[in-house]
Amino acid sequence: MSKIQLFENQPVRFIWDEENEKYWFSVVDIVAVLTDNDYQGGRKYWKVLKGRLLAEGNQLVSNCYQLKMKAPNGKMRLTDVADTEQVLRIIQSIPSKKAESFKLWLAKVGNERIKSIEVRKALTDEWDKSGVQIGEEYAALTDLMTRTWSGMTTREYKKHKDLKKENLRGNMTNTELVLNIMLAEVATTDISVERQPVGFAESAQAEKEGASVAKTAREQLEARTGKPAVSKFNAKNLGQISLGETADKKEGKDDE
User: Fold this and answer.
1) 3-class DSSP assignment, residue 50
2) Number of structural domains the chain divides into
3) Has this prediction a pTM greater than 0.85?
């Protein structure tokens, strides 16, 4: 799961692929940024560049992947996407004074997501050390954490956001992510490292105490802002795009 972010006030659509742990970026948006064009200008430039690269037998275009993303008119359209490695190759094909700054932007986007993965891995490593079983026990501890800090079970939380099969973490706001990842998960990991729990029950106690840190922060934030920290917004109404919306060309017109 991912969202739309701005590079120098220009939108760049991208999707986080949970299974393969990589980003897919809209090629048109990237081309528009690098060539100082709007969306339509980016489309035209990419069409010409794509044709030239195809004629050269460039593997970048031959292996081009498409996903459905929301076009400027609000409709979901198939669009060419590229992972980070492919984006760097596209940058090499376009003379642009923005190339280096865009590379830095790519690194920032990637590091933000990598941090989330590292935090989760540190926690699951502690579960593994304590003998927690992958599967039902992992799910139970995750549910306990969610319920403790947010006041809702994972199922209730997903219903609150009108989610079905979508990933909950990928549909959280920045505030929710900070509470869930940077407070609840980090605190639980730190407690587990110090206590060295053995088995599910002891790990669950550490989990509850760690998530309570995030609960306290949530309650303090809500008291000061006067609004709930747990949002009903999901990826779609946050301007984000779900990887589950991937489709073949029979399901919609290509926007390129």
Assistant:
1) helix
2) 2
3) no
